Amino acid sequence: MDPQKKFFRTVLFFSLGTIAAAFLAAMLTFILTLEGEEETMVPNLQGMELPNAVIELQDKGLYATVQLRFSDRLSDKGTVLGQEPLPGVVVKAKSEVLLRVSKGAAVEKLDNYVGWNIQELESHLKSLESALGPFLKLKKPYIRVSDDSTPGKILEQKPKPGTELTVLTELELVVSKGPEGQITEVPDYTGMPWREALISVVDSGNPFVFTVTRQEEGESGTIVSQSPSPGSEVPVETLRQLLLKAPAELEENYRFGMIERDLPDYPVPVPIKVELIRPTGEMEELISFSHKGGLLTIPFVEEVNSTIVVKVDKEEIVRYRVSEPGIQ
What we know:
Helix content: 10-25%
Structural class: alpha+beta
Largest sheet: 4 strands, mixed
CATH architecture of the largest domain: 2-Layer Sandwich
Strand content: 35-45%
Radius of gyration: 34 Å
CATH topology of the largest domain: Trypsin Inhibitor V, Chain A
Distance between the termini: 117 Å
Order of helices and strands: HEHEEEEEHHEEEEEEHEEEEEEEEEE
Number of strands: 22
Number of helices: 5
């Protein structure tokens, strides 16, 4: 073979081999970079101060990104409220962990809402939920009193205007029902399931009394008659008397009954709250409304061994344990 051709062939093969080796080395390095990174477990950073949380992440080979937000307490300022990924998740080294850090409690001053219409206020506060959502909510039901002003007008508020809002605050309102003796049309409650009728009459702000029967015609578990009759025009203070036919069938281990209590007459309606403590110990609010005194009646269908607690202006007046069938 010609020595010159042999030399060029050798140079060509050497060059191609060098290029192939470089390519293989680059591919191997790329694969090792993708697959060979060390994995680590995300630590629990919630409740830690931000500088300590960042150091903890650095020790794990992770990076922090921070998102600031307001919280309910001033003392939370600078602490981690939440994180993504959650504690215990395994991630690649050099991954980012999002830390939600408290800016502390936002401080807002309560406006003067006396003179507003209650519906206007509800719409106004709904538009401010992003700013005041964690700090202000309306306490319901409202205290409604007869007054010469327009129905729905706010007469008093508590806390007073100018109060600083740094934690979740309930705004308690006294609202006009209009002049004494104002006339209103009575809704038709007959045929309504008793729970629906209870919510409806509570929302209306009118006084009510439930009576239970097992003899009258009509579907069990519904209102079978009422007084005043549907469509009647009566003063707003007129008592709504609703006759409830007791439910015929209940879920296993549940009981139907009626809480009854004679209350003193109050100069203005007082807040009533009905709470349920389940057999598991969980507590929930069943219903709340305002009451001027006299006969208080609250129908219920609840699980045996539950406890029903009735509070008048935050003072407990009834603690009833659901244990026996029938009307109590």
